[in-house]
Amino acid sequence: MVALDPKSKDEVTLFISNDIQDEKFREEIVADGWHTANFPQDFPKNGECPPPGIYLLHENTFLSEFTGLLDRLFLIPQHHPIVVVGSRINQEYLVDLFGKRPFFHLPEIDRFKKLHKCLKSAFNALEKGAIKEDYERKLERMNYEIGELHSIGIALSAEKDPTKLLELILTKSRVITQADAGSLFLNESNTRLKLKLSQNDTLDWQTSGDVPIAIDDKSIAGYVAMTGQSLDILDVYLIPKSFPYSFNLSFDNQSGYRSRSMLVVPIKNQEGEVLGIIELINKRKDFVTRKPGEPLKNENIIPFTKKDRDLLSSLASQAAISIENNRLIHDIQRLFEGFVKASVTAIEARDPTTSGHSERVAAMTVALAETVGKLDEGPYGYLSFNKTTLTEIRYASLLHDFGKVGVREEILVKAKKLFPWELDALQSRLAYIRKSMEADFYRKSLDYAVKYGLERYLAIQKSFEANFKTSLDELEEILDFLTSANEPTILEEGNFQRLLEIAQRRFIDTDGREINLLTDREAHVLSIRKGSLSEAERLEIESHVTHTFNFLSKIPWTRDLNRVPEIALAHHEKLNGRGYPNHLAAESIPMESRLLTICDIYDALTAQDRPYKRAIPHQKAFDIMHNEVKQGLLDSYLLETFIGAKIYKVIETPLFNEGRNLRS
Length: 664
Known about the structure:
The chain is an alpha/beta fold. The protein folds into four domains: 128 residues, Rossmann fold; 166 residues, Beta-Lactamase, CATH 3.30.450; 186 residues, Hypothetical protein af1432 (Orthogonal Bundle), CATH 1.10.3210.10; 113 residues. Helix content is 52%, strand content 12%. Helix 4 links the parallel strand 4 and strand 5.
């Protein structure tokens, strides 16, 4: 509403109630320049807002049609004055009835001079009310814009997803400036922008991408990015040819859309660097009542204002902070991802034979967590894992074996019960004994021939050689047995006794020195009943869990990742309390660790790259794991979920293996 000129009575309607339609002064009112209408007959219907007006109402109208009158009064703008004619209703009653609405009480209208003065006062009140309403509307809009900027700032600072952040920036930019369409560009290098997102209400679509735009003065966006200056264009089709930049008509030609008014603002950081561009098209006069997908009428397209530019510049400043914070967060995440991958590489460098184990376990554990988190029934139907928790599980899975860097390499890669140099020493000792036996045989044969003659020697030569061959065969059989016992297989009871017998045997060489066939260390290690590790070596291997925890505990994890050390620490705990390192009871083992345990054991059983054992088929691995369930070691429900959902298939997909190849 604009302020009314006192001379423009023709812009104001004087509504006159039926009770005073026949009074003599009606002709004088019309002659005085007033545009009149009957009340309530000419009052707008269907809840429409009436035109600027003054209401000349007789008190009989209040008395006879009070309820209906009140309904109409609610539709009349608050600043439209009412003149009440009559002497039966007093001033105090009218004050209570109208409240803040301007009103005038005229006890009688037999003199036109009084009526003229009263209507003039009402007209002045209408004008002042219009001015006041206009200010109030502007103030309300200003408060809304301030509040909206505040809300936008909070929303921008809270959004961590880069895609959603860009969508939020562009959407709020359009809302606060009432723009029909818009695009958002990011400066990803010093030479070009990338069109990341576009929105259009008239066409009812939103599209994202990475369309490159050169940072130069040829395009509007490129010009703003190059100069850092905003542009407010009345009609992009009418840009003078003398200007360096021009509008690209290709989209309008293809879509039938008509771009006209445009506001383009740079997104700058505190150093003045242009991080991106917000480009808005066609400010809408009907923005509040618009319906997406409906054509935009030309008369509803209006220019952007200086206030729009100021508001958008303010929003762009907030957007710059959010974009930089978002980039910083993702840079930190990429840095940490790199650190985690480097740590995994360090683990695999210590034990190349288990290369890929950590990533396979991580992929399966995350997949198992996602599957369990979607279950609505069963003992874990209450569980759910969000994106952050899954990241925590993934990091714990990738780093669960990092403590192996603190284990001696020879133990870490030990494939047999004896270390390679120990086996070499044993074989060399038995080879020396064999040579000594040969030397002793030939010496005794010569001594016998010299003492008793060649003929007698030849008579018993075969007996000598038979005894010698028996001794050699026995030594060879001992070597074969010890070589077999060196394998990390289960040592049977009979073989264990045989090993003890061999350990007690001695050999005296030609110089009279007594030589043990086995050292105490060799006898102890070869008597290991299962696997390749002695008790001391097994404890050293198991210490990798504690090393992992100590290492991971030194990392300043964020709050949403601070359980990574705890999850990794418990991946060798068992439900019956016989796991390590802390022998936790079932209720004390974190659920994430239980998931990790299932996947870790499966990969250890089926991996093709373990030097100390052959890979076994899926079903045999499941049988072994089911047996561990019966022993109270593993979670039955999680194992069945792992098998039923075929979680193990995730590491067999081309996508997983392709990713492995790219990283290696």
